[in-house]
Amino acid sequence: MPGPQTAKGRSAADGRSTAEERSTADGRSTAEERSTGAGGEIVAVDDGYAQIAQDILSGACEGPNGVWRMPWHALEGGLPENAFSGRRFRTSNLLTLSVACKRRGFKANLWAPAEQWERKRGRIRAGETGTVILVPVFDDAAPAKRWQAGSANAPKSGPLGGDPEGGELRPLIGFTREPWFNVAQIEGLDIRPPAPPLPSQAARALLQLLADWRSTRTGLRGPALVHGGHQAFWNPACDRITSPAEAAYGDYDGLSGLEYYAAVLAHEHVHATGSRNRLKRSSLAGYSRRPERAKEEMVAELGAAFLCGRFGLGTVLRPDHGTYVRGWMENLASRDRRRDFFWAAGEAQKAADFIVAQASSIQASTSLASTGRPGAGGGGPRP
Predict the structure, then answer these.
(1) Are residues 203 and 162 in the same domain?
(2) Are residues 135 and 283 in the same domain?
(3) Phi and psi, residue 131, nearest 5°
(4) Among 12, 144, 183, 291, which is least packed by CB within 10 angstroms?
(5) Quick check: 341 and 168 in contact, CB under 8 A?
């Protein structure tokens, strides 16, 4: 936590921009998407959000010790991704598929629509049903904006709009529904999911990513980190994270001390992305007001989960954040306030992308300096 102070549209299968649809993340062209049902009836934005909210609410539970477990805490198997392209899902569909993976006991987070499995000669097991995701539909008639992932002036595009790598961005007008199937529901195809990393390896990789961001030599470099005290927080006045030393973190709610330390630091680094010289997040600027504070903590909670999930590391709800859970659940259950949650989810994805983009710049420069040529050797973890 921070310290003191109906139109015609085009669909994109997991939050991609209209530009990217020419080479879609799930391997189909837009013509194929239309022929396989992705261009069906458009669901209104609010109705689409209601479906996702219900998925998330159904996946939240309070443990016997009073600790809440949310769907995004169960990403230790990695972020959901397309089984063939390797492209990761983002934001709301990420949460939907993670809920399904946990509820149905799937061991791997590899997904594809029925047509892709069949094209690879796989068969959906008898009696299996797909998990419905929402395919964003963007307004073709509206002017497009250009943007670049990880930049400080990236547009506030909402939770599902736009290509994560940058490109064209058009207004979101609704969704179409499309069932996707997990690899565990398929037979006749020899797909062997990669072995998940050891939790200690995942935690070290995440810590290296955060250290790389703090080491960048640009105006967008990460905050300073000092160890001491008994509580972790980011101080916006001096752009510094203070945290107890790694050795001071004990096991907590299924995480080792090292894993918990990495997850807490990820949370504080996400807070730091919202500063005036970075992403200028409104919830951070208004942190002194209770509604904005709750939104900012939601951004940090989800952003940390997205970062941890890149490396196959689970997260938990911090003990001092239990008071926010009721507000998050009430927002999801209320049609009038639901968009606050999805705004926070979009900002969380943007914050995670920003950290990865900035950390990647130091990895690339380290590689060039050590080898004399770009892209060879060196560098930190490769998410």
Answers:
(1) no
(2) no
(3) -100, 120
(4) 291
(5) no
Q: CA end-to-end span of the chain, whole Å?
A: 25
Among residues 191, 175, 2, 42, the alpha carbon closest in space to that of 106 is found at 191
Q: What's the CA gap between 13 and 102, in Å, rounded? A: 22
Q: Is 224 contained in some domain?
A: yes
Task: Give burial (CB, 10 Å; 0-12/13-18/19+) of 377.
Answer: exposed
Helices 338-371 and 290-310 cross at an angle (nearest 10°) of 40
Task: Return per-residue pLDDT of the chain as tens, 383 residues.
Answer: 776 443 344 444 433 332 223 223 333 322 223 223 344 688 887 888 788 888 788 778 777 677 777 878 767 668 899 999 989 898 888 888 988 888 888 988 899 999 999 999 999 999 999 999 988 888 878 776 665 555 554 444 433 344 444 455 677 788 889 999 999 999 999 888 778 789 999 999 999 999 999 998 766 889 999 999 999 999 999 999 999 999 999 999 889 999 999 999 999 999 999 999 999 999 999 999 988 998 999 999 999 999 999 998 988 888 877 778 778 888 888 887 888 888 898 899 999 999 999 998 765 544 434 434 333 322 323 22
Whether 97 and 137 share a structural domain: yes
Which phi and psi (to 5°) does residue 293 adopt? -60, -45
Query: Would you say the C-alpha torsion 306, 155, 149, 218 has a positive or negative sign?
Result: negative
What are 340's two structure tokens? Answer: 């606050």
Looking at the fold, whether 113 and 208 belong to one and the same domain comes out as no
Q: Are residues 179 and 203 in the same domain?
A: no
Choose among 137, 97, 132: nearest CA to 17. 137
Asked if residue 342 and residue 301 are part of one domain, the reply reads yes
Number of separate domains in the chain: 2
Instruction: Transcribe 176-221 into DSSP letters.
Output: EEEEEEEGGGEES----PPPPPPHHHHHHHHHHHHHHHHH--STTP
192 in a domain, yes or no? no
Is residue 211 one of the residues assigned to a domain? yes
Domain stops at, among 136, 157, 187: 187
